Amino acid sequence: MKRINKFLTILLSSVILFGCDNFEEINTNPDTPVTAPASMMATYLIREIVRKDRYVKESAEDGLLAKLIVWNESANGLQYNNLGRKNFESHLLLINCNDMVAKAPENNKKGYEALALFVKSYALYYTSLDLGDIPYNEAGKGEEGLTKPKYDLQKEVMLAILNDLEEAYKCFAAANETAFDGDIIFNGNRDSWKKTVTAFQLKVLMNLSKKESDSDVNVKSRFANVVQNGSLMTSNADNFQLTYKDQSGMRYPFNDLTSNQTKYAMHSSVLINMLKEYNDYRIFYYAEPSKAKTEAGATEDSFDAYVGIDPSINYGEVSKAHGANLFCSPNFRYTSTTHSEGEPLIRLGYGEQQMILAEACLRGWINGDANNYYKEGIKANMTFTRDVTPNEYAHNRLITNEYIESYLNGDKIQLTGNFETDLKKVISQKYIASFLQYTYEAYYDYRRTGYPELPINASTSMNSTGPDKFPMRYMYSTDEYAYNRENLDEALQRQFNGNDDINEMMWILK
User: 109-131 vs 154-174: helix axis angle to the nearest 10?
Assistant: First the structure.
């Protein structure tokens, strides 16, 4: 036995001493790729920026914050205005962007460069909207030894994003017709990506509406230039959206096959009352009728059967309403296991673009008829909702072309010529269209415009430093405090006098 052990020891030592140089070669399967090609990295990056969380509750968080949805499982912090911390997870994508471009084939280099610029701009834009100042110019350079990036002013971040989007558009314009491989949205179509970049440019600029007088940002002329020279979306077919499939790992997140939590979701009175005020058939596509109301005699095609819950009331009252079936759950087309592909998730859409153009007309940024853009935006959302919903889920109230026409001609829909009145109508229609769509956009619009008016109840609020206030931002992550404290402290001091609080007003909102 000793001889055998001695032999094994000598053999192991020989491998360690002499075999190290060839170890990776010996243990590498020549038929298995050891690095991801650019196309595979493109697929990953696109999926990361368009997807929602895979679980029901997490996929509804933006709706809870914007008071579109009420939750019955427990007193939810977002519903009661308690925002937590936000990490810099999006910054990790930048390393993959750099790697993708480095591995891109020469014949499609421009397309991959354009995608990398778009992904960086898109991901960091939303991180900045949530927090304020963030690293931008030094972000994603950890492999170069820059592990503690400095924070750029939010103004600098937004200007850099606008510049990067201009460059992305130019790169797509110079790319092949199939700009790159691995595209799960447009199959690499160059012209579709140009429209997506243009729609995103308009969104970024509209979220800078409070900075109209800032000559460095130059919002008005930038916006007009994009409209004049960019490629605008022309229909829902141009939507930048993720389409789900009835396959494991690809199912719609707000569905009973992903978890059993859909039973806790309830429609908010903010949305339900707005739909009722407009006599809007989308209520029948968004919601299931209240069981208590139908048992009392209301029919499923009657507006009387639909009840919303005030998202600001005490959780005990929420739970009581749930137990009494005096609420509307989301339409079964979202949650049914027989319809697990749900509906596509729009990130940048034609209807939204038209609403942004309508608001730009109201603000005098571009010439045109705000009413036309506004009505086209409504029509786009109604037709999208109708087209992705099987008729059996519409509760006998089909959105026909004739109904859309009558809706658009209704007195309550018409713009008036008064800026505040018309802005409220435009943002209200965007709010209606954002149910389980356009993640967090309703929250950003509310912060920026104050519309629609959302209930705030100091007696139930979990906003500890401002119970009578709606939160304006997330706080920075504990990781930044642990690993990049010096740069974070500097950013906090110049923004908020050192106070990392959810009620502080970032630059873009001042």
Answer: 160
Count of other CB atoms within 10 angstroms of residue 211: 19
Q: How many CB atoms lie within 10 A of CB 372?
A: 14
Q: Is 150:138 a contact under the CB 8 Å cutoff?
A: yes
267-305 per-position pLDDT tens digit: 999 999 999 999 999 999 999 999 999 999 999 999 999
Distance CA 187, CA 370 (A): 33
> Residue 105 carries which side chain, given as an amino acid letter?
P
Rounded Cα gap, residues 421 and 436, in angstroms: 26
C-beta separation of 279 from 410 below 8 A: yes
How many CA atoms are closer than 13 Å to the CA of 55, on its beta-carbon side? 6
Quickly list DSSP for 316-330: HHHHHHHHTT-S-PB
State which H helix or E strand residue 125 sits in: helix 109-131
Spatial separation of the C-alpha atoms in residues 422 and 108, rounded to whole Å: 45
Model confidence, pTM:
0.92
Nearest of 175, 128, 409 to residue 278 by alpha carbon: 409
Query: Environment class of residue 26 by beta-carbon count within 10 Å: exposed (0-12), middle (13-18) or buried (19+)?
Result: exposed
Neighbouring CB atoms inside 10 A of 155's CB total 16
CB atoms within 10 A of CB 35: 8
| Tens-digit pLDDT profile for residues 377-413 | 999 999 999 999 999 999 999 999 999 999 999 999 9
Helix (H, G, I), strand (E, B) or coil at 18: helix
What are the DSSP calls for 85-119, one per residue? EE--GGGHHHHHHHHHHHH--GGGHHHHHHHHHHH
